[in-house]
Amino acid sequence: MKKSSIILDGAFKNNSTFILLLGLCPVLATTSGVSSALGMGLAMLAVIIVSNIVVSLIRKIIPNEIRIPVMIVIIATIVTVVEMLMKAYLPDLAANLGVYLSIIVVNCIIFARAESFALKNGVLDSFLDAIGTGLGFILSVLLLALAREVVGTGAIDFKSFISGESLYLLRIFPQQYAISIFVENSGAFIMLGLLVALISYLVPKIGGMKEKAAKAKAQKMLKPTLETEAK
Amino acid sequence: MAKKPINKFLLLPLFLGTVCLLSAGLIAGVNSFTEPVINQMVIDRQNAGYYKVLGIESADLPVDKEISQALASDGVTSKKEFKSGDALIGYVYDVTVTGYGGPIKFQVGFKDNNFSGFNIITHGETTTYGGVVIPQVDGRIKGQSASSDVLGLINGTDNLTAGKSETGNALVAGITACAEDYLAEVA
């Protein structure tokens, strides 16, 4: 398997949020603003990279019967460490993410990658898979947060990770036209549904276009061969 | 063949125990350097909060007042008197009550027989309740008479805490205890 396709598969083809619909609880809860979504995404990326590397490193010595509790302990440890570091050095972001930071422990995306990939592959491949899956998660939460914030407030509020203060407010359209339900929890479900529908509509089309292009390319390559054979 | 089950019987808990031990060591190691940073942050927030709840820029060094057993049982951990020269500015109480999500540390200030402010230091509530709802208490009580009904002040017209939840009740009880003590102090 190509190294680049490991990353691309995790990020797009098997996107955990929009394609596999995994780990949606924190996705829905932390995407009311772009800053908190990015914070959640980076925390997830850090946890999934370390967990995939550790699980891959010890995959040959983990007894099969206790692989699940071992992976749970490893993931819980990494999440606890990330949480403690965030509380100490990024307190506003940690407060903003609240309990959703702690529940990364039971996030099925991380567990799924550890169980289905890191346990069966080498360290480098597992690292690349974590990068792909993590980047896919970040892109998904950013897309959802951006859509919710823009439609719900009519603006994008760029906040500092360290102090939580607003750095720059980019107004897209007047606030009076904003649909505030989209920054509420119920709006998260509606926007996620809309984006999943849009992506489900677009993905087969893009796939079809790629297939057509591949067929045309194959035919082009086949034509001179057939001509030579005919001669 | 007979040895295998015995080996596994020992190996599995030993392996899991080792993983747990290593994890605990790592968490303890990280905690040893993050805990002082977190504690210092709470102290800094608390120190800044004294001035914030009194609405002042500076004062003489505050005097720690003795707190009664009854006040301590209501969650009050310290009571500070702020003066500028001989003139009394006000009092700030540090309170820790138990909400639904664990301890809630807050400060409540009084001056001129009125509430002068409320400041939340730490909480274990949800992001919205602890980060958005509880901080609104400041706006509800600030400038109101210290003898007012605290629950009525906080609830206003939109039932902010409703007075029915564990967290809301704990906050109201803590603030009321401070108000009663302040009124007795200045009487």
Description:
The complex is a heterodimer of chains A (231) and B (187). Chain A has helices spanning 3-13, 24-29, 34-57, 67-89, 91-97, 99-102, 108-118, 123-153, 185-230, and strands at residues 155-159, 166-171. Chain A has 231 residues and is mainly alpha-helical. In chain A, 71% of the residues lie in helices and 5% in strands. In chain A, helix 4 crosses helix 7 (108-118) and helix 7 packs antiparallel against helix 8. Chain B has one domain. In chain B, 51% of the residues lie in helices and 24% in strands. Chain B contains six helices and five strands, in the order αβαββββαααα. Chain B has helices spanning 3-54, 69-73, 127-133, 137-141, 150-155, 166-186, and strands at residues 63-65, 76-84, 87-99, 102-111, 114-122. A five-stranded antiparallel sheet of chain B has the order 1-2-3-4-5, with helices on both faces. In chain B, a hairpin with a 2-residue loop joins strand 2 (76-84) and strand 3 (87-99). The mean pLDDT of chain B is 87. Chain A binds chain B through residues 61-63, 65-66, 69-70, 73-74, 76-77, 80-81, 84-85, 87-89, 91, 95-100, and chain B through 8, 11-12, 15-16, 19-20, 23, 26-27, 30-31, 33-34, 37-38, 41, 126-127, 130-131.
Strand arrangement in the largest pleated sheet of chain A: 1-2
Q: Whole-number radius of gyration of chain A?
A: 21 Å
**What is the total number of structural domains of chain B?**
1
| Proportion of residues in β-strands of chain A | under 5%
Largest interface comes to: A-B, 25 and 21 residues
Low-confidence stretches of chain B: none
